[in-house]
Each structure stands twice: as structure tokens, then as C-alpha cells.
Amino acid sequence: MTDDQQESRPPPGAKGLPRIGETLAFLRDPGKFYLRKREQYGEVFASNVLGMRLVSLVGRGANRWIFAGEDKYLQNQWPKAIRRLLGAQSLSMISGEAHRGRRRLLAPHFSRAGLLGQVPAIAEVVTAHFDRWVQIPGETRAVAQYKAMAFEIAARYLFGDPGAVGLDLATLSQDFDTWVAGMFSPIAVRVPLTPFARAMSARKRLFAAFSQAVQQAASADLEGDDVMRTLLRVRDDNGQPLGNDVVVDELQLLMFAGHDTTVTSLTNLMVHLSLHKDVYTKVCNEQDALAGEPLTADTLRKMVYTEQVINESMRVIPPIGGAFRQMIRDTEFAGFTIPKGWSVSVNPGISHSDPEVWEDPEVFDPDRWGPDRAEHKKAPLAFIPFGGGPRICLGQHFAMFEMKVVLALLVRGYTWRLVPGQDLDYRMIPFPRPKSGLRVLLKQR
Ligand code: HEM
User: Fold this and answer.
1) Is 387 in the pocket of ligand 1 (CB under 6 A)?
2) Which of 108, 272, 286, 338 has an alpha carbon within 20 to 30 A of 217's alpha carbon?
3) Is the C-beta atom of 383 inside 6 A of ligand 1?
4) How far is the CA of 258 from the centre of ligand 1 (A)?
5) CATH code of the domain occupying 3-444
6) Residue with CA at minimum distance from ligand 1 atom 40
7) What is the DSSP letter of 164?
8) Nearest-CA neighbor of 224 among 123, 124, 109?
9) For atom 1 of ligand 1, which residue has the closest CA?
10) Atom of ligand 1 nearest to the CA of 250
11) Contact predicate 33/26, CB 8 Å
12) 47-85 per-position pLDDT tens digit
């Protein structure tokens, strides 16, 4: 065998237990799992997690290779449980020209310009939620509060007035939580009373509620800039509508993709501002200077330091720890052949702590985003909280608008304290947030 042939082998790695492979160790602590494997096998290694033969690739070169490979040598992939729970016709389940065409249809609505009108509506929901939150006597869990807030923001954005199409937010959010809880089940088998089985039942109810809302909207006047009515109005290149079932699948994907990600980001922002008083003071100064202006997209653009803080928070703790792709043909990367059918993962956390790009990457330092340092400009694909390539987050502008509005209204109107003595340890999967749910005392400022 020549040297070349010897090098071009599948990446090394273990298979783990039958059926579940190494899923349990991975779910317990993905960071430690990764470091242990890297020590054992090197930078490129295979494992067996969440029903996938998964190759870990890290670094900017790997990110570029993955994002450039869409439909050439790899395609999007979700773990089995998510595949069974998400709607089969949604954007994240389709590939190739179907995916590109759908993105073309949706992109204008999710662009910065398309979202300008959403800012006052977001601000209205956020104001109402903070008003209620501050009246709760004693401590509350920020995660629970942000979940309720973000759920209503998303519901208004997706459905306009949810009540007008027969949706009850309280029931919906309960089913939504049960549905999401099943997404990361190590085994996607419907064994009664397991989180996965409960999630499948919740899925049925959610889809029924969404279908009924879509039918009701479709049979009435389609005026409105909510996503549901927009999707019902759009026509593809052949002048065809999407179809109600596709609209339903898209709506549930958007709810899933946009909810816990934003909640996680908002929670971690609160942690960082609590731990870095100098940063908190600078955000307050910026917001106090802008407080006389109505909250519009124009005002959000002036929140330069606030945006640096949001970016830095997502750099240090990316709300999505990884994304998966499946190989559609044997392809070589870094001297290994990654076989067709195997999966590869994008790992934002590793890129976000690359010392070649980020000065003292372990330090929380929003000034690294300022014009004089602009470390993120040193290297493309070093900062990928929203992913990259053709599947870059469709909702990234909406998410940034939402995070800025929440942060602005939080620091302008309120102060808070972390409940002393709480354990600020993180659970990393499914979303990296403090295990405590972040116990805080919120007060009027
Ligand atoms: C801080 C908040 C958010 C973060 C960190 C985030 C992150 C991401 C990432 C990393 C991806 C790419 C996954 C991949 O490569 O497979 C993604 C995709 C996606 N996101 Fe977001 N997201 C956020 C908020 C939102 C919001 C608010 C929405 C909707 C309103 C949304 C809708 C989507 C959709 C539809 C996709 C799939 C795109 C496709 O497959 O073409 N996201 N998001």
C-alpha cells in the first residue's frame, strides 16, 4: 500500500454500545466528550451518537469545507428523533433545488428590510412581559420568563393575532415544550410514557392546531405581514402556492428553530451582564442616551455597544452547540475519506475559541468587536453562531432585533440581582443554559 492509500482511510474512532453507541457520554457533556476523543484520536475522529456515525471536524477550514459542500458531497441532517418530530416538508428537511427555491421565497420576508415593521410589535410584547415579571414577588427563573416572552413574540410574528385563528397560547406552549423535550431523545422509538412518545403525541396536537389556524386564515382575507399569511400569499417560480400542509410544516420549524435559541441567548446575556458590571454600565449608558427615541429599527441600528455585547455573549456560549450534515458521496478531508452515509458536525464553540483569531478567547470582552480591534474581521467563518453557507439561519435578523429590544427595555426599566448561592453550572444539551434556570430578583430601576 502506498502512503497516500494508507492516509485515505475513514477517520479513527470507537462505535460504543449497540443501538445507542456513545450517545449517553456525548449528551452528559459534549465538551468533555470532544476533548477526550481528540486526545485519543487527534483532530478528526468518528463516534457513534444520536443514531449517526459522526465525524467531528473543527476549525475554519472544516467550516468552509462543510458549508461549501451542500448538495455536492453532503446534505443537511438531523438526529433521528428530530427527523421524526419535525414536519417533513419544512425548509430544514428539504435539499437541493427545492431548498434553494424555498429560501428564495422566504428570504425577503426575513431580511432586515422585510422585518423593519416588526420592531414595535416585539417591543409591545416585551414591555407587557417585563411589566408582569416585575410584579412577581420574590425570585423568578429567567429561563421560564424568557420562554413565555419569546413564545408570545414568535406566535405574534408567525400568526398575527393567534386568538383570531383559534390558537390558545397557554395550551400551545405546553405542547410545544413537550414536543421540544423529545427532540434530543437518544432513542427515537415510541415507548409509552417516554419523552419521545409524549413528544409524538404533542406533535399531533400542535400540527392539528396549526393546520386549523392555516385553514382558517386561508379561507379569509390574507392581508397582514405575519409569516402565516405571507406564506399563504407567496407563489413559486411557476406561480404555484406552497400548499397549506407545507405552510404548517414551515410554521412549526420556525417556532422550533427560533424559540429555545433566543431564550438561551437572552439568558446568557443576563448571566454575562450580572458578572461584568463594567459592561453592564456601558450598556446602560448607551441605552439611556437612546431612551428618548421610539424603539424602531433605526434606533436598533444605533445600539452599537449593545450589539457587541450580544455578539460576545454568543461567541463565548453559542446557543446552538453544533449542526449536522450527512455525506452523499465518499469525500476526502484532511487526509481521511469520509464515507457516504456518515455524518459530520459543525462546532461553533471550537471556532469561537480559536486563539489565532481571538485574543484571550476565554475572556468575555465585548470591546474585541469595536472598530479598532474588530477581531471577527480577521478570519471569515471564525464566528458562526448562526451557521453559514446556504443554510445560514433564516431568522438571524429577527433574532438580533428581538435580543436588542429585550436588552434595551431590560436595562432601561429594571435592575436585577442573581439569587445568591445558586449554582451557575451549565447544562450544555439541548441548549447551554444554567441548570438553575437562572434565579433572579427583578426590580423597577
Ligand atoms: C439567537 C437566536 C438564534 C440562533 C443562535 C440560531 C442559530 C441557527 C443556526 C446555527 C442555524 C443553522 C443550522 C445548520 O447549519 O444546520 C439556524 C438555522 C435556522 N434558523 Fe436560526 N437561530 C436563531 C434564531 C432563529 C429565529 C428567531 C428563527 C425564526 C424566526 C430561526 C430560523 C431558522 C431556520 C428556519 C433555520 C433553517 C435554515 C435552513 O435550513 O435553510 N432562527 N439557526
Assistant:
1) yes
2) 108
3) no
4) 6
5) 1.10.630.10
6) 92
7) G
8) 109
9) 262
10) 35
11) yes
12) 998 888 999 988 889 999 999 999 999 999 988 899 999
pTM over 0.90: yes
Alpha helix segments (H runs only) across 276-333: 277-290, 297-301, 304-316
Residue type, 30: P
Nearest CA owner, ligand 1 atom 16: 323
* Amino acid letter for position 97: E
Query: Using CA atoms, how far apart are residues 95 and 78, in angstroms rounded to an integer?
Result: 13
Instruction: Give residue-wise pLDDT tens across range 374-410.
Output: 999 988 899 999 999 999 999 999 999 999 999 999 9
User: Is ligand 1 within 6 A of the CB of residue 261?
Assistant: yes
Which residue shows C-alpha cell 402565516?
228
State how far the Cα of 16 lies from the Cα of 275, in Å rounded to an integer: 40
**Which has the closest alpha carbon to 10: 62, 54, 66?**
54
**Domain coordinates of the chain in residue numbers?**
3-444
Residue 367, number of CB atoms within 10 A of its CB = 13
Q: How far is CA 205 from CA 81, 96, 168, 176, 200, in A?
A: 17, 31, 12, 9, 9
For atom 12 of ligand 1, which residue has the closest CA?
387
Please write down the long-range contacts of 166-173, taking CB distance under 8 Å and 24 or more positions apart: 166/209, 166/212, 166/213, 166/216, 167/209, 167/213, 171/209, 172/206, 172/209, 173/147, 173/148
Our mutation pick for probing the ligand 1 site, out of 386, 398, 431, counting the most ligand atoms within 8 A of Cβ, is 386
